[in-house]
Write a structure and sequence with these properties.
Dipeptide-binding Protein, domain 3; 10 helices; 12 strands
């Protein structure tokens, strides 16, 4: 239970606005259906993180109380850049063209919750400018379907056809469950041998192995704070690949591009003095990562919340998280 701090004085509404409720009771329920039922019974005013629940009935019966919010989240596949076939940029681009992102998005929540994407940064995030070169008829920054003919041509040009692909993931991982089918289909369609899929209890050790005995892995990241550093520098900078110190490696695929790193450094330097210029440079870095097929970005996933009839003024903070101390309750 949280109670109002009588000594608190608002010094900055942007940094920490004063809350409205005098008391907030927080109850933990592991099952999201139980959280939904508590709101429906009138026992709670807000149910958080209910995206895994069947939302169709709620959209009909409780449309005015259901909230769907864009999250700073990207689900993706990462390549092992240090090992054939994906040491070749043409092979990486071919997979990006061939994979059915809509099928992966369906496995990650479906329409309304999960949207296909071709880029690292999520929507409504600093530096985001919609961009998708890996789709049929690229035109508006969105994914419009696979292009198998272009993908097959790239595989032939890369000279990597017939390679067996080793796909690793953590055991019982939902991203792998959603991506495995579309990935297997894509690889077969463009000329690779059926992939070896390993749900590996030693996933993290194997991912950071400097010998790199894997080809594709899966991942999902939700930013801790609203900065492109969280995605671009953390996962894709040369400095975050440490073959001699695997436990320090966050760039497990070993992607390293001098132009990309220079853009990240420029944007980071400008962030405090010229944010507008920094946003433009972050976008250029994001688009370069897409052009170089550093990842196979799959989908951006939204979150869902249900509020009670008596609650209102539902707001999000800068990182897309509900501000429960800003709710009004009648």
């Amino acid at each position: 239970m949280l109670v109002r701090n009588k000594r608190f004085r608002e010094w900055s509404r942007a940094a920490q606005p004063e809350g409205y409720p005098d008391r907030i009771d927080i109850r933990m329920a592991d099952n999201p259906r139980h959280r939904v039922q508590a709101v429906r019974r009138g026992d709670a005013d807000l149910a958080l993180e209910i995206g895994s629940v069947n939302l169709a009935p709620l959209r009909v019966q409780f449309a005015s109380q259901l909230r769907l919010d864009t999250q700073p989240d990207t689900s993706f596949l990462s390549f092992n850049i240090r090992r054939p076939p994906f040491s070749n940029v043409l092979a990486r681009r071919a997979v990006n063209l061939a994979i059915d992102r809509s099928a992966a998005a369906r496995g990650l929540g479906g329409p309304g919750l999960s949207t296909p994407t071709c880029q690292v940064l999520p929507p409504n995030f600093p530096g985001y400018q919609a961009y998708c070169p890996w789709t049929r008829t690229p035109q508006d920054g969105r994914w419009h379907g696979t292009d198998l003919s272009r993908a097959r041509a790239l595989v032939r040009a890369s000279g990597t056809a017939g390679t067996t692909v080793d796909f690793i993931s953590p055991s019982n991982d939902p991203i792998a469950a959603a991506a495995a089918g579309p990935l297997v289909n894509a690889l077969r369609e463009i000329g690779y041998r059926p992939p070896v899929i390993s749900g590996d209890a030693q996933f993290r050790r194997r991912l950071a192995d400097p010998h790199g005995q894997w080809n594709i892995s899966d991942g999902d990241w939700t930013a801790d704070y609203p900065s492109p550093i969280e995605f671009l520098e953390y996962f894709l900078s040369c400095a975050n690949y440490h073959p001699d110190y695997p436990t320090r490696t966050t760039n497990g695929g070993g992607y390293c591009n001098a132009t990309f790193d220079r853009l990240v450094r420029q944007a980071e330097t400008l962030q405090l003095t010229d944010p507008a210029a920094a946003q433009s440079i972050w976008a250029r870095a994001d688009h370069l990562a897409a052009d170089q097929a550093a990842w196979v970005p799959l989908a951006n996933t939204r979150d869902a919340e249900l509020i009670s009839r008596r609650a209102s003024h539902f707001t999000l903070d800068a990182n897309g998280l509900p501000q429960i101390d800003q709710l009004w309750v009648r």
